Amino acid sequence: MTRKSISRIRYTLGEAVKKPAHVVRDTVEQTSDLLASSGELTFGKGLIGTIIALALGALCLLGVIAFHFPEYLTTPELRRQYSVDFLRQAMLVALLIAGGLSLANIILGFFRKLNLLAFALVISAVALGGSRVPVGNFPDHTPYIGLDWFILDLLGSTLIFIAIEKLLPLRKGQPVFRPEWQTDLKHFAVNHFLVGLILLTVNFVIHHGFGWMVQHDFQLAVQQIGFVPQLLLCILVADLSQYWTHRAYHEIPFLWKFHAVHHSAKSMDWLAGSRQHVLEVIATRVLVMTPLFVVGFSEAVVNAYIIIVGFQAVLNHANVGIPWGPLKYLIVTPDFHHWHHSSDDEAIDRNYAAHYAFLDYLFGTAVKADRRLPDKYGVVGDYMPDGFIAQQAFPFRAKPEG
Fold first, then answer.
1. Do 22 and 103 fall within a single domain?
2. Is residue 174 part of a domain?
3. Distance, CA of 83 to CA of 90 (rounded, Å)
4. I want to staple 271 with a disulfide (CB 3.0 to 4.6 A). Which of 10, 67, 184, 325 is the partner?
5. pLDDT (tens digit, 9 = 90+) per residue, 47-74?
6. Strand, coil or helix: 331
C-alpha cells in the first residue's frame, strides 16, 4: 500500500472522527438513495464493489450475532447439519472480502461514505468476535427466528441465480436491481425470519387437525416403496394439492385478495417469488404438507421434496431461458410459470401447477398462446400498492379484484 493510499484512508477516517454527525447524516442519505435506486450496474465505477462490501459486511455482522445467540436466531433443522468450522472459515473469507473491497474503494475515491459504512460493519463484526465467537451448549427447543436461514438462502440464491440469470437470461437486458426489488427483498427477509413461527403453526395444525386421518398400515406400505418412485409420488401428491389450492386462490374472490399480493410483481426474477402474503404462506404449507403427512412418505423423501420445491419455486420465477424441449409438457419451467404471472388475456387463471406441467394439460388450464413469452406481468388494473406493509394490509382493506 502506497504512502498516498495510506494518507487517503487516514483523511477519510479523520473526517469521520472530526465531523461524526455530518458524516453519519451523509452516509444515511447515501445508503437510503442506494437502497431506493434501481437499474443496470456498470463495471469500473466502484458501485458493484461497494454493494458487495455492504452486503457481506451486514450479513457477517448478522452472522456474528447469530453465533452469540444460536438458540434464538438459528433454525434447529439447519444447525444439526452445520459444520461450524466451515462456517467460521466462510465468515472469515467474507470479512476479508468486505474489508478489502471497502478499503480499496476508499483509496480510489469511490463512494467513500458508503464504503466507510461497510468497513464499520466489518470492524463491528470483528469487535464482537468475528469468526472466533465460541458456541457452547444450549437448549434445542427454544422459540427462534430463522436468521441463519435468511443469511444462507440469500447468499446461496444470489450466487447461483444471479449468475444463471446473467448467463442464460429469458429477458435480456433486465437489470439485477429492477424496479420494486426492495419490496421483494423485504418479503424474502420476513418470510425467512418467521420460519420458526410458520413451521410451528403448520406442524400444530397438521398434527392436531388431521391426525385422525392417519392409517399406519397404509403409511408403512408407502414407505416400502423405493426412494425415487416414492419421491416422484410425493411430488405428485403435493402438486395435486398445490394445484387445487392455487386454483382456489384465483377463483374465490376472498382468497384472491391474498394471492394478488404474489401476482403484483411486474418483473420476474429469482426474488419475485418471495412476494407473498404471510397468511398465504402458512395456509399453502398446511394444505400441501397435510397430504404428505397423511399418506406417510418417509422422512428422507419429504426432506428431498422440500429441497426440490425450494429450488424449483425460485427457478420458476427466475429470469432464466433454457431450451427445455419436450420436458416443458412434463415439468413446470420458468417459461411455463411466467405465463401464470402474466396479465395478458390468454394467461388469466392458467398454468396453476408448481411441479408437473401435465396437470394443467390434464385439467384444461394450460395457456394456449402463439408466442413463447407474455407481454406484461402483474395484476390486471395494477391496483396493488407497493411496499411490504401496504401489501400485507391490502386483503383487509380492499374489495375483491380480478
1. yes
2. no
3. 11
4. 184
5. 999 999 999 999 999 999 999 999 999 9
6. strand
